[in-house]
Amino acid sequence: MSEGPQIYRRISSILKMSTGDSVSYRDMIMKKILMASAVTASAMFMAAPSQAAVLAMAGDDDCFGLGGTCADGSLWRDDLGGVFFTSNATASDPAFTDEWDAFNNPSYSLAFGGGTGLSLEMRIAGIADIGTYDVLVNGVSVGMIPQNTGANGFQEVLTYTFGIADGSLIANNNVVISLTGGDGYSVDYVSLLGTAGGIPEPTTWAMMIFGFGLIGGSMRRRKSNVTVSYA
Ligand SMILES: [Ca+2]
Ligand SMILES: [Ca+2]
Ligand SMILES: [Ca+2]
Q1: How many whole angstroms from 186 Cα to the centroid of ligand 1?
Q2: Are residues 88 and 186 located together in one domain of the fold?
Q3: Distance separating alpha carbons of residues 141 and 35, to the nearest angstrom
Q4: Each residue of 177-217: pLDDT tens digit?
Q5: Mean of the pLDDT values across residues 168-181?
Q6: Which of 29, 91, 93, 153 has the fewest CB atoms within 10 Å around its CB?
């Protein structure tokens, strides 16, 4: 079989693709791609606010009342100038923050306006250098602070984060955070992180799935179109 007629057939099939119905089909695909992109972009825009924000905080991020901020790994006494058993709390601080007065295993009550994807974040110096600490939310354990066996464990500053299951531990949008253990420590702040408000996820997910479906459909159609034109 000579190549001549085959090439001719290919050229004529390509020419057919560029006229009549084929052009409007390409327009339709382009429209679908644009629409799918817009839908996906809007879904991503809607998903953006779901980044965790501080919903409630006990105390303040002032580095144990010593002024400014301090990093994990700082030493509360040596690096930061803290003095044991001396309160650095300011008048506006709630009890048991910014001060080395935690032998009483205090609890923190945080009220917030509802939310999802909740987690608990605490910056504490010198905790669990003698034993472990249980972290409770509304009386249910959400994790444990392991013993800090380092030589400077009694004054090391660390930030601890614990996930909180949606719904199960939260009643009346109020969390009571408590610590049970046996040695003194200083708390800079205790905060509740999450996405404020109700549960926007189902709508967002539906939009994203719809958008990806349109893109996938367009890609499949485009692929089969190419196959036909070179058959
Ligand atoms: Ca303070
Ligand atoms: Ca301690
Ligand atoms: Ca503080």
Answers
A1: 12
A2: yes
A3: 47
A4: 777 767 888 889 989 999 987 654 555 556 655 665 665 66
A5: 67
A6: 91
